[in-house]
């Protein structure tokens, strides 16, 4: 979008927050870059220049505006909507892969050479993987500076910088303030070390009912809970574990993170955003779905529905198999037994969380005779675990079609299981489950016809069929579609 000069100018002059994260406005006279919705008086069009990413603006010599904080705007929906190389690379960079494995590790995960990845990312974003990771480290540093009392030396290492000098230089260059000055400007009291209180922005509107209602209704005891008006869960992260509490607020999600290692802040934040689908463009989704006369009233009644996703693709795949042909309550019971037997214990002084969900490696030693389920489903679960330990990629940077093909090749995997994983774990916005009982019930209620008719009609909903599914599910009177009481 940043290449459409006139459209970008109109968005800036209208201070349209819907375009925050889609592009960044650089002001040539002040050398500052802003969100489109920046509250200051817009510059003259001749003094505007537009960039596709904060990293590209920084690389061009612009520093972040102190008013609108463009470095903290919602992420671009493009990276969650697309399955191409650049989108996969961006999802992995957001998950901290460059910080932990370098550009070579990023390229290896994507199955391309380093040169190919760098060339394609730079061509589309105006900055390479290292610059994008640097911009993310700068934002992580700002969060830690403003929300903790950590000494700057420890903070620099936690944010991913190799030296205190690189940390100081980057903060000054990006924010035009020293780390000490940033801390002095911060409002409110810092959190205790290890506990971070963040605001995760999103594009309005947002319908929290199906989002939090689904996560809580399907939550695994010990791993997830609803407490004091917040959804809480444990997280398995690159350097340790974490516990997060997420609460819907006006214009943002209140996020409280307790991390075993502060270096995991970028990955934890990325996974929370992905879990709640916060980088979606709800206006674009709703406009498309509302063109169907039968969906239009549903969209009008609950604008901004998101797709509840997952913080761990392998975890969700295991849970999807446990949920085959059984009730939600039975699936939770099966998952809870696995957690107690094979999960990693954690401490949670603030609530009732007890374990991390078992990793595929931990489940590799699973005795199938201990599973209270049909023998065929035991084989399905063991086949999935074997595939995951052998390298089946269901992470944020996975190839959606390759993952679908691999899942379809496993015994016991039908369309419902594969598309459930595509929707919740892979993040495909067009995943669709026409065989789901909830979809069949909605089709009957709305007069959509049989399965073949629903599939044919769904062509007009593309590429947002996962969001249409949320609206269709909501036609049933199910607790899974309602947010629990605070």
Report a brief summary of the structure.
One of its GO terms (cellular component) is cytoplasm. The chain has about 475 residues and is α+β, with helices and mostly antiparallel strands.
Taken as a percent bin, the fraction of beta residues is 5-15%
The CATH superfamily of the domain at 313-339 and 355-474 is known as Hypothetical protein, domain 2
Q: What Rg is obtained from the alpha carbons, in whole angstroms?
A: 22 Å
Structural class: alpha+beta
Can you list the strand order of the major beta sheet?
Answer: 5-9-8-7-6
Mean pLDDT: 92
Tell me the name of the CATH class of the domain at 313-339 and 355-474. Answer: Mainly Alpha
Helix content, binned percent: 40-55%
What's the end-to-end separation, in Å?
40 Å
What would you note in describing this structure?
The chain has helices spanning 5-13, 54-59, 78-81, 85-94, 97-110, 114-125, 129-147, 152-158, 164-175, 179-185, 208-217, 265-275, 282-289, 296-301, 313-322, 328-342, 360-363, 375-389, 400-408, 415-426, 437-446, 451-457, 465-473, and strands at residues 24-27, 32-34, 48-51, 63-64, 195-201, 224-227, 230-237, 240-249, 252-259, 344-345, 355-356. Helices cover 47% and strands 11% of the residues. It is built from 23 helices and eleven strands. The longest helix has 19 residues, at 129-147. The relative contact order is 0.09. The strands form three sheets. Strands 5-9-8-7-6 form a five-stranded antiparallel beta sheet. It is globular and about 65 Å long. With 486 residues, the chain is an alpha+beta fold. Among the domains are: 5-73, DNA Methylphosphotriester Repair Domain, CATH 3.40.10.10; 78-147 and 150-185, Arc Repressor Mutant, subunit A; 313-339 and 355-474, Hypothetical protein, domain 2 (Endonuclease III, domain 1).
């Amino acid at each position: 979008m940043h290449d459409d000069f006139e459209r970008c100018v109109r968005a800036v002059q209208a201070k349209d927050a819907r375009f925050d994260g889609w592009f960044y406005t650089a002001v040539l006279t002040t050398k500052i870059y802003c969100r489109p919705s920046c509250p200051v008086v817009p510059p003259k069009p001749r003094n505007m220049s537009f960039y596709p990413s904060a990293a590209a603006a920084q690389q061009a010599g612009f520093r972040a505006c102190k008013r609108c904080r463009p470095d903290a705007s919602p992420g671009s929906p493009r990276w969650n909507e697309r399955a191409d190389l650049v989108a996969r690379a961006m999802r992995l960079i957001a998950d901290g892969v460059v910080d932990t494995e370098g550009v070579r590790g990023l390229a290896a995960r994507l199955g391309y050479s380093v040169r190919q990845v760098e060339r394609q990312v730079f061509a589309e974003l105006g900055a390479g993987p290292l610059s994008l990771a640097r911009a993310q480290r700068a934002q992580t540093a700002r969060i830690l500076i403003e929300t903790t009392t950590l000494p700057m030396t420890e903070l620099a290492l936690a944010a991913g910088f190799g030296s205190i000098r690189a940390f100081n230089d980057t903060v000054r260059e990006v924010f035009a303030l020293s780390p000490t000055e940033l801390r002095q400007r911060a409002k409110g009291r810092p959190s205790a070390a290890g506990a971070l209180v963040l605001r995760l922005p999103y594009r309005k509107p947002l319908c929290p009912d199906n989002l939090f209602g689904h996560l809580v209704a399907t939550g695994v005891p010990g791993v997830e809970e609803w407490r004091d008006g917040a959804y809480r869960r444990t997280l398995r992260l690159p350097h340790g574990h974490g516990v997060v509490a997420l609460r819907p607020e006006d214009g943002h999600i209140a996020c409280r993170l307790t991390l075993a290692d502060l270096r995991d802040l970028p990955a934890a934040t990325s996974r929370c955003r992905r879990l709640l689908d916060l980088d979606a463009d709800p206006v674009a989704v709703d406009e498309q779905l509302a063109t169907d006369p039968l969906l239009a009233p549903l969209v009008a009644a609950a604008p901004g529905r998101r797709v509840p996703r997952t913080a761990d693709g392998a975890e969700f795949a295991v849970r999807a198999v446990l949920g085959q042909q059984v009730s939600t309550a039975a699936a939770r019971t099966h998952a809870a037994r696995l957690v107690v037997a094979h999960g990693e214990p954690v401490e949670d002084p603030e609530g009732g969380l007890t374990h991390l969900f078992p990793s595929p490696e931990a489940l590799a030693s699973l005795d199938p005779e201990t599973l209270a389920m049909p023998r065929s489903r035991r084989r399905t679960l063991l086949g999935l675990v074997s595939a995951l330990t052998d390298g089946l990629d269901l992470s944020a940077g996975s190839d959606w079609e390759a993952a679908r093909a691999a899942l379809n090749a496993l015994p016991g995997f039908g369309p419902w299981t594969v598309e459930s994983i595509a929707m919740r774990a892979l993040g495909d916005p067009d995943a669709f489950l026409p065989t789901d009982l909830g979809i069949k019930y909605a089709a009957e209620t709305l007069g959509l016809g049989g399965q073949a008719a629903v599939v044919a009609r769904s062509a007009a909903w593309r590429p947002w069929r996962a969001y249409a599914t949320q609206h269709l599910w909501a036609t049933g009177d199910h607790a899974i579609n309602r947010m629990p009481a605070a």
